[in-house]
Amino acid sequence: MQALRQLVRPKNGSITIAIPEEYANKELEVIIRPLISDVGNKKNYDFSDLVGKMQWKGDALAEQKRLRDEWE
Fold first, then answer.
1. 2 vs 29: CA distance, rounded Å
2. Fewest CB within a 10 Å sphere: which of 1, 25, 59, 64?
């Protein structure tokens, strides 16, 4: 499935979408929703660049129990 995505900020209550030729004479679905980052001006951080970077030396379960015991 191919998709066309446009991020727009309508000023006058309407938007215009230019349809590529490969979509001509096809039934299309149009969904309009606010960006999640726009709601409350909260930006989501992408942690994918951190995956696999930390090298853990030790017993993770023992460390978790130690941290929990700090709160008792």
1. 12
2. 1
